[in-house]
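My current task is to audit a protein record that another person submitted. Alongside the sequence sits a line of tokens, each denoting a local backbone shape. Please read both lines and tell me whether the tokens look consistent with the sequence. Do not assume that whoever made the record got everything right. Thanks in advance; the entry in question is below.
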Amino acid sequence: MSGDLFNQNKYFIDAAKEELKLMDPATTDYMILDFLIKFGAGRENAKSWPEIDDFLRARGRVIRKEDFQQGLLKKSRESNFYIGSNDKGEPSGYAIPVTLSDVAWAMEFIDRRLMKEQERKVILTGLARDAFPNG
């Protein structure tokens, strides 16, 4: 990890700053992205949902976690201003990657999700065989 200090890359931060320029500063999404650029760069600075929520509430904003996930977070994962997340271990939360280790941290979450979806697919396949034995 100490080697990461010398291998930091601002690609995702710069992309997030470019995205910020396209956003209306009055929006909650703008506030969240700006907050993550300033305080959530790198997994060691990952912000939990309660931290993001507290930041917004202190500024008179309320957004459901699900709306954030289906909105800005989803958009970031279809763009080049990727907001990574991880819900296991330390750190957990949301962060903008600045090192290759940060990217690996975010990929761990994706890998777990993919494995869980594969398990669900196996279950559904078995149920389908039971439901449609001649199919």
